[in-house]
Amino acid sequence: MFGFGKAKEEEKEKSKIETEEDQKSNQKPDNDTKRVKKESLEGKQEPLKEKQQEEPKKSEEKQIKTEDQDKEIEKQQEETEKSEEKQIKTEDQDKETEKHHKEQEKSEKKPKKDQDALKKEQAVLEEEKSKFKNEQKMFFNKNTDSHEEKPEKIVDLFRNDPKRLEKFSHTIQIGDEFIYFDYSKTHIKPAGLSEMFKGFSALDRKSCMFNKERINFTEGREVLHVCLRDWNVLQLLKLKDGKATDEKEDILEKELKKLGEEERLVFDELLKMKEFDSKFANGELKGVTGKQLKTVVSIGIGGSDLGPRAVNEALEFYKRKEANVHFVSNVDPVEMLNTFQKIDPEETLFIVVSKTFTTQETMSNAQVALKLIEEKTGKSCAEIAEKQFVAVSANVEAVKAFGSKYRFDMWDWVGGRFSVWSAVGLSVILNIGFENYVRFLQGASYIDEHFRETDNHSNVPVIQALIEIFYSDKMDYNNKCIVAYDEYLKNFYLHLQQLEMESNGKCATLDGITTGQTCMLIWGGVGTNTQHSFFQLLHQGTRKVLMEFLVPLRPLQDKKVLNNSQFEMLFANCLGQSRALMLGENNSKDYKFFPGDRPSITIAYSRLTPEIVGALIAFTEHKVYIQGLYWKINSFDQFGVTLGKSVAVDILKAMDEDVKHMDTGSMRLLGLYKELNDRESEK
Question: Where are the residues of the annotated region Disordered (predicted)?
Answer without folding.
Answer: 1-122
